[in-house]
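Posting this for the archive.
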Amino acid sequence: MDKRLKYLNALRCFESAARHQSYSKAADEQFVSQAAVSQQMRQLEEVLGTKLFVRKGRQMRLTQSGSKLYQTTHKAFNSLLQTFNDIQCEEVAGSLTITSTQSFSSLWLMPRLYRFSIKHPDIKIRVIGSYEVEDLQAGHIDLAIRFGVTGKPLIDDDMHYRTFGEDLVYPVCSPQLIEQMNITSVQDMLDCWLVKLGMEGKLSWQSWFEHAGVDNFDKHAMWTEVTTGDMALSAVLSGHGFALAASALYSQYVDVGRLVVPFDIPHPVTLKRFLVYDPNSAKQARIKLFIDWLDAEMALGG
């Protein structure tokens, strides 16, 4: 046997460091110290007689030899994982860990999740509500439901993503507010409290008012700032002004008459949904069942 094949652990470490362009991230993924990663890379470079990385700032950039080795090791480990999955012939029964924003998890996913559990009682679901872009592998997460206003989510190269529809965003309020404040025009909204997210981004009130043709929006002073969309909807459900919300989050409240969309003027920026998962996961059968269920639920009306 070629003696270089004795360094499989170092090759695993190399593939991780090359994928992340970081020794520290490779250390976290491999559950070893950064010093151990550095030592393994030095040993591998000595055995191969060539430099694999060069440091550039905080990143470890691949040399030409390193790039060639990464392409081969990445493909080889993915092939191994796929073979493992094929051999295991995974049963559907088991667990799935799902992550999404706190708002989507609490307002859309959780009210519907019982229907998935009725259909698939052998699959145990764990839901993580988070506004961080969670590392799926490090967090042992099987599927992420993410959102953005651009064409592609921020993901690692070894993750797969697919679109999961998109939401129009509208101002919503309680029907009682419409009656109490005699709201008949967009201009009348400036007599009310406006609830906004601390990190509005492109889905801002300013963009909506400009799109609606309101000129004196910048003089508005009645603001309530919150950190999550579910907090914003909780406020307006009690009659506290207007909030900008994605249709998937407020539709259930409109259906039962607790919220209204007083003006048919959507935000000029739409909110895109994405599903992100590891294509080499041993839980592919479960992930597919859950994604199929998500698609079916969205097709029922958001």
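The mean pLDDT is 87. The longest helix spans residues 64-88.
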